[in-house]
C-alpha cells in the first residue's frame, strides 16, 4: 500500500467513526429537539441545513484532499457521460415494485394522507443527494481503490444499513426491522445504487434512482 493510500485509509477510518457518532447524536437528540421546537417547513429547512453541513461539506473536502486515490475524481464525478437508456429497465422495475406494492397494500394508487409538501425538501431532494454523496461519492469511491469491487460493495451496503439504525432506535422499531427482514431492502438498494455508480462513473445516476425511489415512497406509502 502506497503512502498516499495509507493516508486515505486513515482519513476513511477517522471519517467513518466521527460521522456515525455525530449522526447518531443528531438523530437521537438534536433532530427531535428541532422538530419539537420549530413548525414546518422551518423545521425541515433547519434539519436540511444541518444535514448538508454534516454529509456534503466534509465529503467535498475529503474528495479534494484525496482526488488521486478514488475510483472517480471529484472533477469527473458529475461530468462523465451517462447513457440513460441503459437504465430504463431499472426505472421500470422501481416503478412496478413500488406502485404494485402500494396497490396491494392499500387497494389503490392514491397519494397518502400522511404526505406533506415539506417532505419534498428533506425526504426527496435532500436525502438522495446527501446519502449518495457520502456512501457512493466518497466511501465506495474510496473503497474501490483499496479492495475488490465485491467487497467494497458489501462493506458499503453494511455501512449504509448501519446509518439507518439511529432513527430506527429512536422510533423504537429497530428490532422489528431486523426480525421482519425489512433491513434487506436497504441492503439491496445500496447494492443497486453502488452498481449504477460503478457502471456509469457518474454520481448523478444513483442520486436520480435514490430520489425516484424516495419520491414514490413518500407519495404512495404512509
TrEMBL record:
One GO term (biological process): CAAX-box protein maturation
Which residues fall in a coiled-coil region? none
Give all residue intervals belonging to the CAAX prenyl protease 2/Lysostaphin resistance protein A-like domain.
119-216
Q: Which UniProt keywords apply?
A: Membrane, Transmembrane, Transmembrane helix
What GO molecular function annotation could you give as one example from this UniProt entry?
endopeptidase activity
Write down the InterPro entries for this protein, in alphabetical order. Rce1/LyrA-like_dom
User: What parts of the sequence cross the membrane?
Assistant: 12-30, 45-63, 84-106, 118-139, 151-171, 177-198, 203-221
* Recorded family membership: Belongs to the UPF0177 family.
Name by which UniProt lists this protein: CAAX prenyl protease 2/Lysostaphin resistance protein A-like domain-containing protein
